[in-house]
Design goal:
Length: 224
């Protein structure tokens, strides 16, 4: 009887631990990117408008990624290419670069950005809940650690998929069409304020091969 009671208590605590610990709940969805937004800066050439919007300030970062990306050294910029002209243009993710004060920032993929930022924050939240659970978590450590591992792995994969779903992909933009998505870069270490941030993008006319080069200077951004 005592063993059965202990098992029930263990199961109950495990369920409470898994449901009570940190969850990943970003407010921004892929469908939200299609809507018109207020960019940080925009430039138009031959009817093609390229705009960028910062998602690095804590509030906006949490809105999109449920984490403060800057504190983990990740820069996320929302890029939007809208064709208001008559030509067809190709835009590739690799053609978009970022630099601070003339120093190029390394581009990183969606999964790497997720692993560096949001999954780390989630692990920290889960650990904090475990500490708060105190003796219950310690008493039932085999149960809680097994549940924690499975739950964390599942959430981490969901986080990675979210970063991937929001990432800008290569696109052919026809008249009256829009391509939009995030690009991710590594921030300079110990950044407190992002000044002289420049995003450059290149679009290629198809057919014809004419290239349009965009250079967008983003206003200074406080990271804290």
């Amino acid at each position: 009887m005592r063993g059965s009671r202990h098992f029930k208590v263990a199961g109950l605590v495990a369920i409470i631990w898994m449901t009570g610990c940190a969850s990943f709940e970003p407010a921004l969805r892929t469908s939200d990117l299609v809507r018109a937004r207020q960019p940080s800066v925009a430039e138009t050439q031959d009817g093609l408008e390229i705009s960028v919007e910062e998602f690095i300030t804590p509030d906006k970062s949490r809105q999109a990624f449920d984490a403060d990306l800057a504190s983990y050294g990740v820069l996320a910029m929302l890029v939007r290419a809208e064709n208001k002209g008559v030509g067809h243009y190709k835009i590739a993710q690799r053609s978009i670069t970022a630099a601070v004060g003339g120093q190029a920032l390394p581009a990183i993929g969606a999964v790497d950005a997720a692993n560096q930022a949001a999954t780390s924050e989630y692990a920290g939240k889960a650990l904090g809940w475990t500490v708060a659970a105190g003796p219950f978590a310690i008493l039932l450590w085999p149960v809680t650690i097994a549940g924690s591992a499975a739950h964390t792995q599942s959430v981490n994969r969901r986080i990675q998929q979210h970063f991937e779903s929001l990432q800008l992909t290569d696109a052919l933009i026809k008249p009256n069409q829009t391509a939009t998505g995030f690009v991710y870069f590594k921030l300079p270490e110990d950044s407190k304020k992002l000044e002289h941030l420049v995003i450059e993008a290149t679009a290629t006319e198809d057919p014809g091969g004419k290239q349009l080069s965009f250079k967008l200077s983003v206003p200074a951004i406080a990271l804290q």
